[in-house]
Target: Related to membrane protein
Amino acid sequence: MAFVLQNMLSVTEDKLTVQEALSGVFGSVSLATWIFLLIPQLYLNFKTGKAEGISMGFLFIWLVGDATNLAGALWADLVPTVIALAFYFCLADFVLISQCLYYNHINSKARQASVDTTSSTATEDSPLLTRRRSSDTIGLPGSHRRASSGVSGMSGRRDSLAKILEQDEEETNPWLYNALSILGVVVVGAAGWAIAWQSGVWMPTPEDGAGLVEPAKTALGAKILGYASAVCYLGARIPQIVKNYKDKSCEGLALLFFLLSLMGNATYGASILCHSVERDYINTNLPWLIGSLGTMVEDAIIFVQFRMYSPKKTTSAVE
Model:
């Protein structure tokens, strides 16, 4: 990501070609995607008032990746825009982690208070309720069981129908919503590149690499931090995949969050490959390409989990 922005801000006198334009557009779309990435999950947590679906291990490893990315950018003395963006990622991670910790703490206290109230109520009232139910069943054996099952069945049907109506109202064509959101991010990214190019802020980098940061001039420590950041990004999703598998659920996760992540990594890789496929250039960007490819594979696994663990629509409410 840092290399994409570095290349976008390099100034040369070459004319713009289709390949260079595609590289710039893909890089700009990737940047827009990363900027908006965490918003869907933040909004879902706020809307539901809980954050139990997302793995804290996932978030903390990702924060470490962004922190090492920021440290590497500072050490390598990259352009201020790259450093500002890396700082933004760390800030956004901190906001999301703080939100999740807050909701988890509040909901944990509420559950504990509910358990304490229920246990105390059961201790005081259980004998009276037990005697009353026993006396009710004296007249006609089995009559109370049939009556209560009928009442619970009717209330169960009403609850199920209410849930179905609620779900239909809240989740009206979510795929259309996600598609429009992704399209909006693409438009913002492409427009940002067009404005930057027309204003002279962005100009193409020569394919021979004259405008690139030379590996020899990059401090070894900055390189190590860059590799550490890539490893963190690659391994961050593993705790989330494991959590989804154990819970057999993806409830509480924003699908758009992972769709944007997939698009960000795809456009990032495309911006590198559209710029050049020379061996030296590919070798320089290989760690980032491998990290993007691996992350896309992990996102694909999470998409499969969304499909596998999605609530099944049944007709049990009218049975």
